[in-house]
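for the record, two folds in this file. i put them one after another cuz i was lazy. first one right below, seq on top, structure tokens after. the second one comes after a little note so u can tell where it starts
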Amino acid sequence: MSQQFFSSSHSSFDSSLLVRDAHGRYLPASIDQILEAARQVIDQKMQRGMAFTSPAKVKEYLAAKLGGFEHEVFAVLFLDSQHRLIEYAEMFRGTIDRASVHPREVLKETLRCNAAAVIFSHNHPSGDPKPSGADKVLTKRLKDALALVDVRTLDHIIVAGDTTTSFAERDLL
């Protein structure tokens, strides 16, 4: 169903964005509708073949994709040898504080995409972007598995709302 969003001059956040329903009436947009609209916009900005030219661009993209979820989502950016986007995939969905990630499935999808490099990402609904011990262990397992087939792991970015943490920037890769 196609929805159209319009700004309003009202001061409260709840009524600052309106959605036109199937009957042509304008109703206040829900938080979920706003987040979905933001995800659609970021998808239009970063389509297949677009290059991730800076860590800031990657973080902005992933914060828009994962920032609003109330449960953990583990996603992978599959990239070609020039770090251009082949595909973004939300591979695993979890609970409020964990998601089970299966390295075999990540490897299969990486090979299916014929990716030369990957960037892992997941969100922390708690709002704390600090990598856990489990996050570090998982990243090493994934990186080691992909290295066996000559796929480079460029980063693992944790998204907590609008805050991000990069494993590469913290020398955790």
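(here's the note) second protein begins now
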Amino acid sequence: MLGLVHGSALLLTLTGLGSTLWHGVEDPGNALAFGVLIAFGELARSRARADGEPPLLDEPRGREPAPLAAAGALAYALLGQSAGSPTTHGVLQTVAVAFAAGLAGTVPHIARGRGPDPDHLARRILTVGFAALCFQPLYNTGALTDRLGRGPSYALFLLLLLVLTALCDAVLGALLHRARTGHPYGPLLRDELRALPGIGSAVCATGTVMALGVAVAGLWALPVFAVPLLLAQVSFRRYAAVRTTSRQTIASLARATEIAGCTPAGHARRVAALSRAVGRELGLSGQELTVLEYAALMHDIGQLSLVDPVDGGATAALPEVRQRRIAQLGAAVVRQTGVPEAVARIVERQADPYREQPLPARIVRTVNAYEELAAGSAGGGLGALERLRLGTARDHHPDVVESLARVLARGGAATAVTRGVAPVPPG
């Protein structure tokens, strides 16, 4: 699937570039203006993530790192007139300008060692191509204005086209994520759709308003309508910085148990990373995954309040009463840190019988037990899974255990996590 999406984007790009070079650039002033806007949007895009750095799970479509560039490309795809004069650039030139301008804006990032994301480029090209294909032929032949005019019907058509374009982008995003990670497609698509009311809706609205504004006022409308989205991007960067600081604080608190000798080195990080993978397998949303990750990082923090430390930090084999006591102490500490109450509730309920637990608490309990059993049993991971399956009568939910087994069976990053070599989750 990954090769199919990338191949389709590459074929469309080459066709657009070839057609534009062969026939020449139509309306070069419009092409240059929108190209500059797209290039500037790419130049101002959010920081590229370092290799191996997991994405923020519930950020409002920080999955679109260059909203201004995306809005500019969409506006060019929906452009039918410029200052009252009809345009003739068509579908293929739209794709060629979007690609060339985006590549030009990426050059400074490449020079700093932050190359373009192939998935991001493929989504941009295919989404813009879809919007242009739905609009340009109808508008250029006159069929659109002849049937709908320029009143409310025309506005409703643009709204419908925006909805279809957003759905196209969401489907592509989920497919690419599925191909990269192997996670279930349904939850990934649901996350993409939930992200649309955020920055996605701002991109669509700005792109449409830009196209309509240029149709009436000419190219001077571009900087006027670009400023609000640019300011929104700056605000989001500040929000993301606060989120990153919060995650770093929680990660530091989680390390306190390791520094104090209560748990093995890297235990909290491994449990958090593997819990996140199991949660994704079970269909948790991005925000739920973030809460789960926080709770998994801090699940052992109650051991800091114990007078007699647990041998090796292994709490899974302790009596139920002592497990609950540690969980309650941990929840009390978590509530003092200012993190969401949902995190404290998961930490507090991780030692309850699984039939009484919410799903995130079930995941933390099972993954923590697996980590401790795999480290202390002669059978390693396989032996630990068998012991978890034997405990599904009361201690571990069967669905969670089987999801954990599927995550581990896929190997790759999940296997590295269980061996303690995974990168530290952000914050």
